[in-house]
Fold these 2 entries.
Entry 1:
Amino acid sequence: MGSWVLVAGSVDGQAIPTSPELALRVAEGEFTFPLACNSGSVPYEVNGASIEFDAERFTQTEEGCTSLQADLFEMALLRTRSLSMDISENTLSLVGPDVSLQFDRQDP
């Protein structure tokens, strides 16, 4: 399913910084992503337009660095409940309660 770059996002009304570039890699059943100097992954399951992440299997390396972008992105991702993908427009949207994440395809 490819790589997607975060172009806009918010959680609880707070904007998620888009710099440095945050590339979400989508594979069958798993999202992987950078988080500051760390990286993370979380399994997912799609049912129609609904998506569910297995929060108990959310993993993240622990290199000892933190960032506002990483903290907000992790919080937003785990509260996401639905997705919308427009292949013709090369966009991916994830939404949930007070969460909005918009991505553009990195490798069209």
Entry 2:
Amino acid sequence: MEKETLPDKVMRVAGWIWALIAGGGGLWYLWTQGPWRLTHGWFALCSGLSACPLTARFLKRYAGVRLAGWMQLSLAALFFVAGKIALRMGL
């Protein structure tokens, strides 16, 4: 097993925080507003799932793909920004 460096630990902690706040908030928003229309909940949920360290572990184990922590957080931010743009455009 590889020894984890400090930047890796920081990214893992940031990923968990992002996953809990964005993913949990998105799930709550979908629960209260309903899943059928385009809402911030879908984008927040996808953002949280992409930042979650368990997603990287799952991809590494079952798909053979290794994602760096900075890449996961970048994808999470991309989902967040895409959601803001889509909702502003009224899509």
